[in-house]
Amino acid sequence: MKEFNKDVKDGPFLLLYPDGTEVIKIPGTQRPFTLAAYKAEVDKSYQRITVFICLKRDFEEVGNLSDLFDSDPAIVIKKSSEFDLADTLQAFVEEYLKWYIIDRNHSAIQRFKDGLASLGFLHALQQHSSVLSPVLCFSAKALTASDLETMFRPDLSPAGSNRRQKEAKTLGFWADYLLDSEALHGRIS
Q1: Is-cis flag, bond preceding 12, omega within 30?
Q2: Could you tell me if residue 102 is left (phi over 0), alpha (psi between -120 and 50 degrees) or otherwise beta?
Q3: What secondary structure letter does DSSP report for 53?
Q4: Cα separation of 157 and 55, whole Å?
Q5: What is the mean predicted confidence (pLDDT) over 86-94?
Q6: pLDDT > 60? residue 66
Q7: Averaged pLDDT for residues 114-124
Q8: Which residue has the higher pLDDT, 61 or 123?
């Protein structure tokens, strides 16, 4: 579990059945617990088997839990001073947002970074982040065509070459696009 989630505290741990009792024997038998034997006993596929893991110090076995549903483990916190609801909720919200924004989109973010790296842009961005932050980060100032033209200077071929003529034509199209965008929206979008 610690390899899967680096935030897990150090044990010892207990495994619990859904009714909140400790996993030691197969329920209703004297046979020691094994996952295969439990699977056969409950007659469910492996992905449908539910057991819970918790720190031994955070758990106290509670008497008869028959009034609880099968999916509700009973966990009792020993000291109220160890449990601060506001801190727990804050940590929960932070973990959820981290998952929602970063972990859930990890593959898309990685593909985006790989694309930037293939052009050498990622390295330049990391080395000179302050230069590109006005373009890549929100600013109340509207971005203009002249801002973009001064920010990006092309590395042109030698004057008089066929390649330079094509580059000049492309730069003309680029300048027209920037000016048209600015005129249409009042800013570059």
Answers
A1: yes
A2: alpha
A3: E
A4: 67
A5: 74
A6: no
A7: 86
A8: 123
Whether the model pTM is above 0.85? no
- pLDDT averaged over the chain? 76
Which amino acid is residue 97, in one-letter code?
L
Block residue for tokens 């593959």: 107
**Nearest-10 Cα torsion for 169, 174, 178, 179:** 10
Which amino acid, residue 47? Q
Q: Provide the 10 A C-beta neighbour count for residue 148.
A: 17
How many other C-beta atoms are found inside a 10 Å radius of the C-beta of residue 112? 12
Residue 92 Cα distances to 27, 87, 89, 98, 99, angstroms: 33, 8, 5, 10, 11
pLDDT in tens, 155-189: 899 998 999 999 999 999 988 888 888 888 765 65
Which tokens hold the place of 177?
A: 């696009």
Dihedral sign computed on CA atoms, order 151, 155, 161, 164: negative
CA–CA separation, 50 and 64 (whole Å) = 20
- Is residue 25 within 8 A of residue 31, CB to CB? The reply is yes
Measured between alpha carbons, how far is 188 from 85 in angstroms, rounded to an integer? Answer: 47
